[in-house]
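Why this split exists: single-chain examples teach little about how molecules sit against one another. For that reason, every record in the complexes split bundles all components of an assembly together and asks for one structure covering all of them. Below is a record exactly as it appears in the raw files.
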Amino acid sequence: MFFDLNVPITKKISANTSKKGKGTGNEALVSYSPAEIAAVEHRIDLQVHLGYTILSFCQTINKRVDPKVHVNVLNPLVALLRKRPGIVYLKRLNIILDQDSEKGFGLINANVTFFNSYDLLSLCPTTHNTFNQACLTHSLPSNLTAHIISLPSTLPRLPFHLKHTLIRTAIKNGAVFEINYVGSLGAEQEPTLVDANAAESGPAAKRNWWAATRELIRVCKGKGLILSGGCVVECDLRAPRDISNIISILGLAQDATHEASTKTPKSLILRAETRKTYRAVFSEPTVVLPEDSQIRSSVPGPVEQMEIDPDSSQVSVSKRPHEDSEPLNVPRQSAAAQPSKKKKKKPNKSDKSSS
Amino acid sequence: MVRFKNRWILVEFIPIVHGDSQLGKQSTSSPPLDGKTIWAALKQSVLTNFGDTGWGAVGLSLTVKYFSPTTNLCIIRVARDQHKIAWGALTLLTSVEGEKCIPNVIHISGTIKHAQLAAIAHNREIIARYRALAKTSVFDDGYETFLENSSREIDALQD
């Protein structure tokens, strides 16, 4: 199971400036011509042939996000693509941060509904302050966590020093750092990134990429890294094991490179689903009532007597011959009332392929 | 006993014509790819990406053992200690003789036997894909003879 979490889609929205078009209902303005759809399908064919099963389309926005202006161009695209069994499509938003975004760039609670239409959020910091923000504040679990931090590795000089403590905090909070292999080929990058001076193409970009990526691997010590594409043209796509080999030439151990292309992205996607939950609580906790609530305290060993799985209708009872059935009724009712407090509805993975 | 260990890399070159990959279609490139041209392109790639030292490490043991123009399948033999450099240079290869292509490494093995088996299995897959696209009767097309000939060629490979 191989992941490519960066399939860049650039779509110019027609400049329709009618006042009535304000608001998040602008998706109707985004239309894909059959030629564009065919091109995307062709590219997906190639990636499936190379071995990728999970693809995430990526829309890049510069500086700040304004839900009144920006439109989720990926929703209509995913709806129009042909369904392939076993292939999962995801939607991702990449925000380029620079000096103007230091005060705030729209990742606020008021815009949560806009961000919920994307499965993954990522940031591309270009200054020291935005890198600090991205690592410390935006990686904390919340409704607006940006789980992926993508460094501009093709710039001539990495704009900020990669401080070990920042990166360690980010990884502990659950964020990951992304390595885009398109830079290693010196190939064409996404136009929005190039315009915002966050990426370069050409042979000089190759040299910068090797230096910056080596530094990133050294600081991350092999944890919290994902490999992804970022290729705009088809001829730059490469098979996932080839990319793992390139990264292992850079100094990462072979098992760590394999993890970076399989295990880490998988747990990242699952973690990103928790944006829709309260404080990243994932599992279904069982309710264990303390021994003195409504129950005779003379019974020893209360835990195994009271442990109730909210889903099951049976109450697990320890074998005590002189117990009567009365205390069992009470906990069943109160337990049934409580579990809805923290339960999270787990969206099924199969929903994604049909989204 | 210091035995000389090798790695046999099985690569498929996917041709790109006008920015579109030609998966499943016959290659119609006017200068047909050849084992020698692939070797030259690979040497160039090692030189640009890993320098003279890289070529010095890999160059003596790098040989292109088999190439089939119909399926764009190539078998390359490298010494085991430096196979990563050769593999990396292969991935970073963008064009052969001016023709853009995507190198897709299908299989790496330490013995020739498994490389042969993987190559024959891969040929079968490619022919199945061609057949699915062509939709002609299975017995009419020349693919059966091609499969037999290529299997014979692959089995005739020696160390």
